[in-house]
Each structure stands twice: as structure tokens, then as C-alpha cells.
Amino acid sequence: MKNIKIIEVPSEIGAGTRGASLGIEAIKIASLDFMSSFFIHFPSEKIPHENKLLYEPIESPYAKRIKGVLQMYEKISKAVQDSTRQGFFPVVISGDHSNSGGTIAGIKAAKPASKLGVIWIDAHSDLHTPYTTPSGNLHGMPLAAALAEDNLESAVHELDDETIDCWNRLKNVGNVSPKVLPEDVVFIALRDYEKEERALIEKYGIRVISVKEVRNKGVENVFKSVNRYLSDCTDIYVSFDVDSLDSSISKGTGTPVGNGLREREAEDLVSKLMQNRKVCCLEITEVNPTLDKENLMAEIAFNILQRSVNVLMMS
């Protein structure tokens, strides 16, 4: 039985749409609506955020609020590192997906010798860098930061020295860089990404499992396939962005995309992945209740969270 610790990260400074910082409370409200006592069963830690930066001028158009994101990386990294070293399994519930870079840094800080695999369940690859970003939003860059990837071959922007310095510091949080190798990344439900990100996926041959493949092969076979692919890894981090779900049900997120996973498919998939004893951390991110009706997105996220944690408790 794993000792679960909930790490709450209500930061949304990496996103382009406001409201993801409210996602954690929305998920808690969903648990109350289901008359669940889930959140009183586990120790929790709330990470102080830097959302005040949303009201301040943007310094770098190609890496918006990167100084604040760097601070969040360091705070999240310490919380995940400490929790892991204390014998907890960290379950991170975060606002926007930029926070996952801090989670990965914390895992590596706690286990510097580990070969870390990443299962990225998301409509987007989040492989942009300040050199390639079309938006400047850091929630499109955490995986590139973990890979220590600049993607200069696809660069479309020239950066000022301060942005370059902040980006390099972001990649090096935890004093390990890269934290993950491309061959240890698996995308699931990926379907919306730019040519600059595609170039990296093709360059490194990163494994992509489409929604169609999940549907045709079934969750059990996908689970076995992922386990085989990441068999050399000593630890695995699972990151679940709710926009991996189809846009017909993922209205409560900032970047919904069609042709995504169905609710039951996502629930079966994430909970199944928790059966792999190498999984050392789960993150659920990008719930934005300000875009939702009747808190549906948070309810779906809570169902996935609760079932996954129940599997962890039994493993």
C-alpha cells in the first residue's frame, strides 16, 4: 500500500486563459457533490503561487512570466523531492501544465540516478521553447524544459539575454539536465501540435499513441505496450491533462481539442497505468471551472483521481 500525499499547485501563470488556478477547489467541490471524503484521507501540501504576476506587465513575449514560473519550478520541485524522500507517493493537482516541469525536477532531485520515464496524456505535446513558441505561454514548454531542448533548428524568435538566462535556469532546476531522455517519453492522445514540435517528435522518434490506437487496441493492450516500451526506466511519471479528453466533454479547460478520449477511456487508462509499480508520481492538470457548466470537467477529473488513487492504495 502506497502512502499518498496530495500536492496542490494553484498556479496558472503559464497559461493563456485565466481560471486554471481555481481547478483544485473545483475538484474538491466535485468530491463533496459526490459525498466523498477523499480529501480528508491524505496529508496535503499547498504550494504558494505567483499569480499576482497576472496583473503585471509581461517582460518577455516569448516566455511570459518566466521568472514566476522559475519560482514555481523551485517550490514544486522541493515539495515533490521532500515528499518522495519521506516515502510518500506524490499526487499533484495543478493549475496549468507548466507546473509539471517542477514536478519532474522534484522527482529527479529525489532520485538523481533514476532513469525517468514520462507518460504524457495530453492533446498537446508541450515541446515548444521560447525560440519556437507561437504564444509565449510556458504551459506549452514543460516537456522541452525537462528534455533540456531548445529546438534551435526550428527557431523563429531571437531572444534577449535575460530570457535566455531564465530559460537555461528553468532547464537546470534541480541541477540535473536533461531530466528525461526522448526515448523515455510516451505521448497518449496527442493530436494538436505545431510543425516545430513535430520536428522534435520525428527527430527523436518519440512514441505517440493516438486516441484511435487506444480505442482499437484497448486500454489493457496499450498498458502492456507502454510498459514494454519503458521497460528500461526505473521510475515513471504520469501527467494527465484534461484536454486529452474530447472537446465535447472537456469544455472546462483552456485548450479543448476534438477527437479525444472518452471519459471512461481516460478513467480506465490512468487507473490502469497506476498498476505499474514503477509509477512514482501522478499529476492532473488544466481544469478550468470558469469555462465550464455544472462543474462537469472537475467531476470527471475527480473520478479519474479517486479511481487512480484507489488502485495505488491496493498496489
Give an account of the 3D structure.
With 315 residues, the chain is α/β, with parallel strands linked by helices. It has a single domain, classed as Ureohydrolase domain (Arginase, Chain A), CATH 3.40.800.10. Helix content is 37%, strand content 14%. It is built from 10 helices and 8 strands. Strands 2-1-3-8-7-4-5-6 form an 8-stranded parallel beta sheet, sandwiched between helices. Helix 6 links the parallel strand 5 and strand 6. Helix 1 packs across helix 10, helix 7 packs across helix 8 and helix 9 packs parallel to helix 10. The longest helix has 20 residues. It starts with a strand and ends with a helix.
C-alpha-based Rg, rounded: 18 Å
Q: How many domain regions?
A: 1
Content of β-strand? 5-15%
Tertiary shape: globular
The H-level CATH homologous superfamily, spelled out, is Ureohydrolase domain
